[in-house]
Amino acid sequence: MDAEGLGWLLVPLHQLVSWGAAGAMVFGGVVPYIPQYRDIRRTQNAEGFSTYVCLVLLVANILRILF
After folding, report:
1. Would you say residue 4 has pLDDT above 70?
2. pLDDT per position as a tens digit, 17-48
3. Angle formed by the axes of helices 7-27 and 51-66, to 10°?
4. pTM for this predicted structure
5. Of 4, 28, 35, 38, most Cβ neighbours within 10 A?
């Protein structure tokens, strides 16, 4: 098959990969919080929880998305 014959497959595949990468960048910023959230819920103790770490992670992820 030549390149023109695969055009019908490559364009939707490129769009799917593009949407998948964009979704991973948006929702990937939440993933590091899940184990900490589960631990706080399980132990009912927020000792050691730092709001400054959350702030740094949020700013870093927002800048990553904007970049």
Report:
1. no
2. 999 998 888 788 788 788 888 888 899 988 87
3. 160
4. 0.51
5. 28
C-alpha span between 28 and 30 (Å, rounded): 5
Q: How many Å apart are CA 58 and CA 6, to the nearest integer?
A: 41
- Percent of the chain at pLDDT > 70 equals 93
Categorise residue 9: left if φ over 0, alpha if ψ from -120 to 50, beta otherwise: alpha
Helix (H) or strand (E) holding 29: none
Number of helical (H) and strand (E) elements in the chain, helices listed first: 3, 0
φ, ψ of residue 28 in degrees (nearest 5): -65, -20
3-class DSSP assignment, residue 31: coil
